[in-house]
Amino acid sequence: MKKLFKNLSFGRVLIYLFLTVGAITMVFPFYWMITGAFKSGTEIISFPPVWFPTSFALTNFVEAFERAPFLSYFINSVVAMVGSVSICSFTTIVGAFAFSKLDFPFKNVLLALLLGLMMVPFEMIVITNFRTIIDLGLYDNILALIVPFTSSIFYMYILKGFFDSIPNSLYQAARVDGCSNWKYLWKVMVPIAKPSLVTIILLNAIASWNSFLWPSLAILNKVNKTLPFGLYSFVNEGGSRTELMMAASTIVVLPMIILFLFARKQIVNGVARGGLKG
Amino acid sequence: MKVTIKNLTKRFSDMTAVNDFSAVIESGELIALLGPSGCGKSTMLNMISGILAPTEGKIFFDDEDVTDLSPEKRGVGLVFQNYALYPHMTVLENICFPLEIKKVPKEERIARAKEMAKLVHVDTMLDRKPGQMSGGQQQRVAIARALVKQPRILLLDEPLSNLDARLRIEMREEIRRIQQETGVTTIFVTHDQEEAMSISDHIVLMKDGFLQQYAKPQELYDEPANCFVADFLGNPPINKANGVIKNGKIVLEGDCEVELEAAKNIAEGREVTLSMRAEAIIVGEAEKACVGTVEEVYVMGKEVLAYVSLGTTKVRAYIDAEKTFDKGQTVNIGLKKRGVFVFDKETGERLA
Q: Which of A139, B154, B218, B324 has its CA 20 to 30 A from that of A115?
């Protein structure tokens, strides 16, 4: 018995050691980026490296903001994200409901077709999307970052899976009470699916925030750039001021970290969904 | 409200779930739709509620033809086997929901919901979510939600089968009480004969989509219309022995001659099934119907059950605890009039 306990604790130590190494590997670049944003030009290139910055003055951030219009990058990113995520969430919810609970002709054929489209890589659609945007007269317009991302087959399919798991008797109970499809969707399905929805919105928001390829094609002018694209131009133009790059990178990443910290709580709360038997 | 069902048929692509079904359900009664699983009883219920459209036939609520009406226009309250409560709403919100859809003013709907909660005894847990309640309590909430809009008819689809045995007895009495207090015409689906027998005014017994018999519980037990009805009701299951009519007697397999008053009117040579309830067989009777051999005797508390072979068929019979029988003993068997039936072997049609 004692031996078993010993083995167990040894195994535990190994596991924790492994996890610690993994965690450090993941967190260290972030640590380096954030501390780097506070270091001076000499501190950041000195060897041996400076682990802690000597002051926490925001001079690097101020300078980064002066050298490039990060504020308008930030606003553009937020507008593109809020616009595409909110419209996409709506189409996702409505589409998932239709495919999960409604009956219409060629439903399964249509679903198979849509799923088939998911196999086409984004890089291939880029060209046709680009043509469409030009034809719509949206080139170098912030709307060009929203319009192509107003629906997502992948998220719709995930949400459909969750909707499928909600028992049909709920739907029938509501129908017998005279509840319309529309009302049932928003009053019953959406609140129940909240945990899934939060995850979908979060994934979508991160993808939108981080997207680089598409903005770099569809946007030309500095004032219309989003953060990742702006950061890229900044690095290209700004030369080798590493501490400024670190400050700019921190600005890009920070909102996502904050968003995740808030939403994480939501997800954990939402997972505990009771009352659905059978 | 009176429900009239006329020649109702429901065909799915490869099967007929309900076949030419007609019945009249009187106002204020509690009716059980009873039958083995897959007999079409839930399909029947869904057609009455309007969730399913019938292939043929008509349904009338009083004199109104509701066949083509959508569920919400029929004024039915529906309770599901899995309760179907909205998990994100509290008990009060759940009960209020049907009224909210009907746009009843907020104060009125809360008052009515609270009244209903009181009727089903969940008024102390209005702020709980369904996940924090037991199955029995959830079922009470589901009944309250179905009743709050004052439906013309209450439909319950296997309301008790998700509950454990003790709760089931408690809840079925509760359903009876609630039905009596509100006087609402109620139809409930069950596959449990005891449940149907204990609380319903009439039982509709179905098999393979066909109505077998529609009668009072005791009548169903005492006067089954066919072999299936006799088979389905009763515990222990009814004893069955196959035989042929010869000289006004039934000759069972293994050359056991049974004298039965009722058998005298049946045509010579007809193949029949003799069905006998365990309590209708009297072992060791002077006035004998036939002779049998005691195979086994089980004492089960107040009752003594004997296995007796009549010819090659073994039957169960309750015997008098005072009498003792040995294994292998040959005994006279008497048959009571009540609880002994003769059916056609092929069609199951009742002959006597």
A: A139
